[in-house]
Each structure stands twice: as C-alpha cells, then as structure tokens.
Write a structure and sequence with these properties.
2 copies of one chain form a homodimer.
Chain A lengths: L3 E8 L3 H21 L1 E9 L16 E2 L2 H5 L6 E4 L6 H11 L3 E4 L2 H17 L4 E2 L10 H8 L5 E7 L2 H12 L4 H10 L8 H4 L2 H15 L1 E3 L5 E2 L7 H9 L2 E10 L7 E10 L11 E8 L4 E7 L3 H18 L2 H5 L6 E4 L8 E11 L4 H11 L4 E9 L4 E8 L2 E2 H13 L3 E10 L8
Parallel strand pairs in A: 1-2, 1-4, 2-3, 4-5, 5-6, 8-14, 9-11, 11-19
Antiparallel strand pairs in A: 7-10, 7-12, 10-11, 12-13, 15-17, 15-18, 15-19, 16-17
Chain lengths: 437, 437
C-alpha cells in the first residue's frame, strides 16, 4: 500500500491540542495501516513555552510564533486550536493564503467569518475542515455533507451544547438550582470560568449556523437567529415541565419553511419526556435530522473534551490525506450563497409554557386570562401554586397554539398589569419528531 | 463549477430499484448544484419487462439482460439491487471485472462472498460501496470508516433488523403474540412472505459481519457467529422482562476481547428499559458504537424501505463521483486480513434470564435450583407463576453472572429432569453502555 505522509502544523497547544497530539501518537500506526495516511506533527506553536513536557516531540518542533508554523514549507495541513476570533482568524486566513489546508474546531470563528473564510479556502485551492467544531466526536458534518446528500433535509433539532445540557440534567435529576448545577459543571471541567457562550445559547447558535449551512446550502448570519439561554430557568420550571410530561432542553432548531428562508433559533424548549431527544442527557450532544427521503435520523455522542475533539480532528486529517482538494470541489459549503437571512420567528405557531408571578388574591387569574384572551391567547392548562412569602403566587400556564407575535403582545400587556410582578417567562413546547407533520 | 457526469447502470428494478430511480430523478438537480455530480440513469436491467411504467426513461434504457448493462461502455457505475447470492454475484463480479465501480445494498452477498469480492474490486481498481446494505438511510458505514477512523472501536451493539424490531415492539406495546405481530409486519410491508432471515437473526448477522469488518479491519465469516432468533420469544417473556426493568431486543454484538478475536453474536437480549438502545423502537434501526477516544456514539434511523435505501445509494454514487478509486486506497476494508474467526462465546460471563416449564408441585423448585447450583449457577431472582392447564407452571429465573459454558451444561441437566417439560429458554441480560466497563 502507498503510504502518504501528512505533515501537521498545530497552532494552539492547550488541553485540546495536547489531547489531539497524544491521540495522534497512540493511533498513528493503526491509522497508517488502515488508511495509508501517515500523520506526523511537524511544528507546534503556542504562547506558552512547553505546555505538555510529558509529550515527547522531536527537537525544534515547538515555537511560540504561529507565523513560523503557517509559513513552514514542511507543513501540509494547519490545525487551528487557538480558539476565539482574533489570533485564530490570522492563523486560518494566513494558512489558507499560504495554500495549506486547515482543520479547526473553532465554531465561533466559522460562524462569524465563514462567509469570508470558506471562499478564501476555495480561492486558494484548499479545504477548511471542521468536523471537530460541531458536536465533537459525532461525525455529523460528514453525515450531512456526504451521508445524507441524497435526501433533502427538512429540519434539524439539536442539543448542541454539553455544558447547558449537563446543567439542565443536574437540575432535573438531582433537583439542583441553576447556580449550583453551573458550579458543579465548572468543577468537573464541563463549563468555562466564564460560561456566557454556553448558558446564553451563543455557542449553540454558532454550531447551528454551521449545521444550517451544510443542510440548506446557504450561510446564515447567526446574529439574525432567535437566541435565548437557560439562565432564567428555575428548578420550578423543570418540575412544572415534568407535570406536563415534558423535559426542558436547550434546543437549536433549523427548519425549512413552506416558502422563504428557514426558521433558525436556539432556546430552552419543552419536549415530551418520551421523545428520542429527551434521552440525550448529561454532557452529551444529540442531533435529530429530519429528511425527506431518508426519514428521521438521530446522532448522539460526546460533544466536547480533548479526546473526542481529537478524534474528530484525526478524522478530518485522514480524510484530507485521502481526498485532499477534491472535497472542496465535491461537497461545497454554500452552493446557494452567502447572504442567508433567517425567517423572523414572529409568524411561528406553537404552544407555550408561561410562568409569571402575581399578587395572590381573588380575581387575579380572571384579569390575567382576560388580558391573554384579548390577544387571542387561549389557555390549555393552568397551574397556580406556591404562594411566595411576600403575598405573591407563581402561576404557570400552558397555551394552545398561538402565533409568537400575538403571544409577545399579550405578555407585554400581562407584564404591565399592576398585579403582575417582574417579566413573565415563556418557553416553547415542541415535539421534535412531529415538527414537520 | 465543474460538472461530473455519472452514468449509472442499474440491475434490479423492483421496489427498491424503482424508489432509487424516482429519488434520483427528483434530486438530480439539487445534487448536481451541491456537489457537481450529475447522476443519470444510462441502462436498467430487470427480469420483468417494465416494472414501473409510470417512471419516464429515455428509449432504450430498459433491457432484460443484465450482461448488457455490466458490459455497456456508457455505464460508469453499476448499482446492484437484485438481491440474493446467485445472479447478484454474477452481476457484481462481472461489473468489477469490467472495471466498473459497484454500489450495492446486498448484505447477504457481501457477508457470504465479501472475502472474494472486495479483493476483486481492489485488483480491478474499483470501489465496491455498500452504505445501503447496513441500516438503510443511516450513514453508519461512512461514520465508522471515515468519521471514527481516529479512534479505536471497542464494541458495537446494534438493532440491525427493522422487521424483528417491529415485531418485538408490537409484542411489547400492544401485547400481541409473535405470530400476530409477524402477520401485521407482513401486512404493512415490513416483513417478507418468508421472514426466516429477519426473525432468525440471519439478516442481522450479515450486517454485523460488515460492521465488524469496518470496525476491526478483518473479515469474519458470519457462519461462525453465535446467532439465534426471536421465534421462541413469547408475550410472557416480554412481560417478565418488563418486571425486571428490561425490554427484549434482537441485539447484534461485536465486542473486542482482551486478547484474541472479538465476540460476535446476534441474539434476543434483555437490556435495561432506560438504556439508550431501548428507545429504538418500531421498524427503526440503531447502532451504539463504543470507541476508545470518542466515547459512545449512537446512530438511529430508518433501516429499510425504498426511499431510505435509495438515499444511501445516492450518497454512495455522489461519493464515488467525488473521490472515485481514491476511497479504495484510503479506507480499506480488511487491512488486517480475510481470515477472521470470532471468539467462541463459551467463556463469556453474563447474567441470564431463563424460562422453563415444570410440573406444578412441591419440591420442584428445590430440584431445579439444586441442579443449577451443582453447575455453579447462582439464582438472583425467581418468579414462579402462571400455572398452565395441564398441571404445569412457568418458572422464570434471573441468574447472577455465569460463564456460558457452565450455564449450557446446567440447562442440559435441568432439561433432563423428569419434572421439566420441553427445552428451557435462555436470554442474555446486558447493559450495552456498560458492556465495556
């Protein structure tokens, strides 16, 4: 068998970078025997002098200047694991201009700058591969691009952020409040010191932008998505959801609409307890893909961590060794363009869970339901309970199908009532598998 | 963009063939725009004159002689959808000898003759692609070969046969007996008139042979697998399993052993009700892949049907248009050889569910448990109930961990007791996700 040497330049040698190099060293012989690709680390750049002294490397491999890596003629493929959108941008754009393929796990950068970087890769005859950027070890990028290319994709429903899923799972199974569950996630290394991107849905939106591009052939700017996080979810909401036969998940949705652009959103969502996505718990990710010809497809697995991410990077490297620039020609990122604008969610019909706090006295429910009714919001179920110490009560309402715009107007009126305290919370209720029916 | 014409010769124009051509016609423009592959039907052969008069084809496309298709210089890729292992063999071997790539959904033929056909493809510089042969629309072949090539695969646990899963699901949720559920599957088109391959585990074993080859790099002859079907499973077993917190699935298992060859089997298995594979119901398929670096990964979806199979075939055709013979070099089928022999299951340690019928009188349980104890089989749980009309009782036993060889010896003794009627039934109890722990 022909052996094909692949000389890798790594930029960013932190936890994931170290995990990738360790995995590459342990799997190198097996991958060479199975695929003919001989993956070897040629250069590594990191701002820290030698972050992993326990990893054996040939002398001269390490440098603190990424420019030395992306311009090194001995490097075929650059792996970018710096993260963020500043230096990482310079690394990727520079490597592509130097005609080197790039493998990255950087969803934030691709979501922000994909419309610029993918065409740049194409102009330079290079591939910008990113299996590791979405759902870690789950080969969802390849599944959509290649495995499902024979069938039109109708929708995606994804649990794309392991940190948020871990927190919601702890809140549900261990009756923890949000702050305690977040702290536990941080202690276990499932959440960053600054968890904003994870708990506010931003990281999920970045990944959704990439999945939507693969599925619909058009680049949609994530800034136009409807995005809301899980910081306002309380243990009470989890408990009320349970009474309705549901669990709460931070759900990323990409859905074709009858005409016009797709609906793209990331938001906490109530889904039925026996729905297949409800079984995706702890730090796991899951993507449910509804296709026209191939039916529904679910992929679940570890969405993050040094080894799972490393595994996805090795897959991209091997794929590149096998097919090189052919992939660029064959499975293009945005055949339909770079200028996607998602549908405004205002016209979406859905059932909603609403939680609000109001004064605990007779006649209050009549005023609230009257205000909702005036805007056409019909109540399917009502729970009033848990009188709070200061004379208030928590009220939970499940609505019938209602247009988002109407509900928002109704809640503006309700929140303005003198008997209602603080802004109400609304969560969409959805059965992912029947979403297209 | 460069457009690459792909001229397809189809042999076998039945339900799946017709579905594939319909899907190809409806998706051709989209696939060409997204990937540059222009998939066109050049020739079709079928023993029936024109099975789908509603499908528009250029004049001269149809023939009744497959030889005209596999030798046609205007055909680049042959799609084999004849099924079976006789004519289909001639079609595939002939096409490969004529230097044409082959795409097939024929797991039976590949399991029987893969050790001959894959090397034949290689010698002729061709690819023999078979995404559609395993789990229909689920891109599990590509996921294992390419997506997970960076991580060693430790085990597979699969629900690989939609017919058997449909029957077991009906038995569980609708309290049907085996015969009624099978009849319903046949009425709905989920089971063949002769369901032997499906309900006896043979079809699952064929698919397992292919998944094992992809995962372990060696061709294992399925005739050496431990295979048993679901025909002896009764509604009582489903009910007893439920009392133990379990469901019964026809589970295909490929498991690396510490040393020596992997354990390969297809058998009804009790798995915990909250295990992720237990949620794969009805006619769906599911594969749980446990990897060293990437953790566990579950893929579920439609395992059969004209459209899902057609979708997988279009994926193979597009992949071939993009990469052609490069795939043959890069992701080889059997880098470790063609001569695999699975481990004998005799040394496997497992818990078992045992059901037997015995005379309903005092002292019987003592004799049975005594006979089991003499062979080292320790009882974890015992249910005696449902006295039958002829003075017998059904006894269900859950054992502690026991070696298969010991259990078989014990059951031989038990079945020989004068108080025991007919052969006892044993079913392995397993938690797929903890199988490697």
């Amino acid at each position: 068998m022909k052996v094909k040497p692949v000389r890798i330049g790594l930029v960013g040698y932190g936890t994931v970078g170290g995990g990738m190099v360790r995995l590459l060293q342990s799997e190198r012989d097996r991958i060479r025997a199975a695929t003919g690709a001989d993956l070897a680390i040629a250069r590594i750049a990191d701002a820290v002098e030698n972050p992993h002294p326990d990893i054996a490397l040939p002398p001269g491999t390490l440098t603190r200047d990424y420019r030395a890596v992306i311009s090194d003629p001995a490097v075929d493929i650059v792996v970018e694991l710096v993260g963020g959108t500043t230096v990482a941008y310079d690394v990727i754009a520079g490597a592509l201009r130097n005609k080197k393929h790039v493998v990255t796990a950087n969803k934030a950068l691709l979501a922000e700058k994909g419309a610029e970087l993918f065409p740049l890769a194409r102009e330079n005859g290079c591939v910008l591969a990113f299996e590791a950027a979405v759902c870690g070890a789950i080969p969802v990028v390849r599944a959509i691009k290649e495995g499902l290319c024979g069938s039109r994709i109708l929708s995606l429903h994804g649990i794309l952020n392991g940190t948020a899923n871990f927190i919601l799972t702890k809140m549900r199974f261990e009756k923890k409040d949000f702050a305690t569950a977040l702290k536990q996630a941080q202690t276990l290394g499932f959440a960053e010191a600054d968890p904003t991107f994870d708990v506010e849905g931003i990281d999920s939106a970045h990944k959704l932008a990439l999945l939507a591009a693969l599925s619909f052939g058009r680049f949609y700017d994530w800034h136009g998505f409807h995005v809301s996080g899980i910081t306002r979810i309380t243990d009470l909401d989890i408990q009320y959801a349970d009474e309705m036969g549901c669990v709460i998940k931070l759900l990323a949705i990409a859905q074709r609409t009858e005409q016009g652009p797709p609906f793209l959103s990331v938001a906490p969502t109530l889904i039925p307890r026996d729905s297949i996505l409800a079984g995706v718990n702890h730090e796991f990710n899951g993507v449910l893909i509804e296709t026209e010809a191939a039916g529904p497809l679910l992929l679940t697995g570890r969405g993050a961590g040094a080894s799972p991410t490393g595994s996805a990077i090795l897959s991209d490297l091997t794929h590149l060794a096998a097919y090189g620039p052919l992939e660029r020609e064959a499975f293009r990122m945005y055949p339909e363009g770079l200028d996607g604008r998602p549908a405004a969610p205002d016209d979406l019909m859905a059932e909603y869970y609403i939680r609000l706090t109001a004064v605990d006295k007779p006649g209050v429910m009549a005023r609230i339901s009257g205000a909702l009714g005036d805007h056409g919001v019909s109540i399917a179920m009502l729970l009033q309970k848990l009188a709070t110490e200061n004379g208030n009560a928590v009220i939970v309402i499940k609505t019938h199908d209602i247009r988002t715009r109407q509900l928002n107007d109704a809640l503006k009126t309700v929140d303005g009532l003198d008997i209602v305290n603080g802004p109400s919370l609304k969560i969409r209720i959805l059965d992912p598998l029947s979403a297209n029916s």
